[in-house]
């Protein structure tokens, strides 16, 4: 059986920027989505609320998807974006899978983002 686990490239800007931060990594495995999220980054490093910042990032990703599909498949960017947003809203209202995961524990450095005692 072929090994399809081929990581995507790191964007050139992220390669060049010593301050670049990976925010999400997603895989389709065992019939579903599995992801690692850098939850807490905006909580500690920005005046923007964490949920609002993730919403902006999801919107930016949707724009990148519509641009990419226009470039590689000739699809209309606006129609594609509308389709992505429609699917997103439908999935939010009527989820088709369960969402669970393991989140940071006290042994995980990510918990430092939620420790406000040093602020």
From TrEMBL:
Compositional bias of kind Acidic residues: 109-119
Q: Which Pfam families match?
A: DUF5076 (PF16826)
Region of interest (Disordered), ranges: 93-119
Task: Give the highest taxon in the source lineage.
Answer: Bacteria
Q: From the Swiss-Prot or TrEMBL record, give the protein name.
A: DUF5076 domain-containing protein
Q: Which organism is it from?
A: Stieleria varia
């Amino acid at each position: 059986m072929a090994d399809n686990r081929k990581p995507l490239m790191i964007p050139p800007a992220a390669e060049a920027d010593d301050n670049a931060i990976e925010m999400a990594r997603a895989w389709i495995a065992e019939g579903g989505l599995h992801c690692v999220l850098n939850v807490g980054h905006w909580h500690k490093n920005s005046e923007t609320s964490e949920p609002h910042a993730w919403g902006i990032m999801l919107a930016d990703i949707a724009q990148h998807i519509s641009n990419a599909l226009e470039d590689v498949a000739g699809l209309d960017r606006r129609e594609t974006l509308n389709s992505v947003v429609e699917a997103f809203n439908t999935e939010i209202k009527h989820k088709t899978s369960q969402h669970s995961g393991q989140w940071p524990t006290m042994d995980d450095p990510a918990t430092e983002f939620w420790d406000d005692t040093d602020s």
